[in-house]
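The protein record quoted in full:

***
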Amino acid sequence: MKLPFPELTAEEAAALIQNGETIGFSGFTPAGAAKAVPRAIAAKARAEHEAGREFKVGVVTGASTGESLDGALAKANAVLWRTPYQSDKTLREMINKGQTRFFDMHLSQLPQYVRYGFLGQFQWAVVEACDVTPDGEITLSTSVGASPTFCRVADKIIIELNEYHPKELHGMH
């Protein structure tokens, strides 16, 4: 089915993201976390750094995410600041060395802080989904967390379709 939305590769989506922007990523642990787009953002960051340009983004998620998101972005030195909880070894080392700003907060407070604007403007929400309807209804994959809040407040949304998860997840959340 052809959707009435632009279909982009992960690399094309990453190319839209600019230095200093804030991204709300789906995921609660690696479950439901975007995978391809964060890796493409990391590749963009490495290319920008090699060209002598700064490239880092603010990273907000529903909880820790894993290697495909926190790990990939940390190894590319692409994280300007991060909240809430995270558990990636490379990112933790960067935080402890003062190379990445971090503040921990209780996960239950995050959506309200985002809605009230305490974390600033979110330019992007990047969410993993198993389906999106022609009218824009998103069926998230294996986690919800803060994703609805990110989608509500972000200027733009990138939906990373993961066809490994069945569309029958619709209604399970």
